[in-house]
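Hi, here's the filled form for the chain we discussed.

Project: internal
Contact: R.S.
Residues: 199
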Amino acid sequence: MSLRTLPQPAKGLPIRRFRGTPVASLALLTRSGRAVVFDSLDGLARRIDAPDLAVEASDVLVLCNAGPKGAPGMPEAGYLPIPRKLAAQGVKDMVRISDARMSGTAFGTIVLHASPEAAAGGPLALVQDGDTIALDVPARSLTLEVAEAELARRRAAWTPLVAAAVLTGYRRLYHETVLQAPQGCDFDFQARPITARTP
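And the returned structure, exactly as it came back:
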């Protein structure tokens, strides 16, 4: 699975799409490594500083289910912390990928706003621990180095972390109607063309 450039990318920030999938993300800088996957914000909080977390400085941290549906609300959680045991060794940056967003004051080698998000069955939902991910901004590519047959198997077996059927009230309305990051995370019933002009 690889990426291609969208028409008219934002100045200075390459905007990508997974080939064959409508997935956009903002990429900053370049590297590659083995995926270490966190399936939720709670999972990240529980595991990131665990002394037995199998992680090396060359790995790629992947946070799933932190987008509009998954978190819910797409919090500023894309600035994943460096695992404590690596920070103690002086590691200051790692490749981090998520369907979340982050503050403009944060920094690092980070891919954000993956869309469709993992909670909607997007490509991040298919990433597993140990997969190789290559980020190469000069070549304009982000590649999950997993065979298509294996990705198809994972896609067929995928189930959402939170099923809409178990939600009620506003949470269910939100989950079923919120749009993805490229569409502004608005409710689908609010997204209509603007036909009037303000004087």
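Let me know if anything looks off before we file it.
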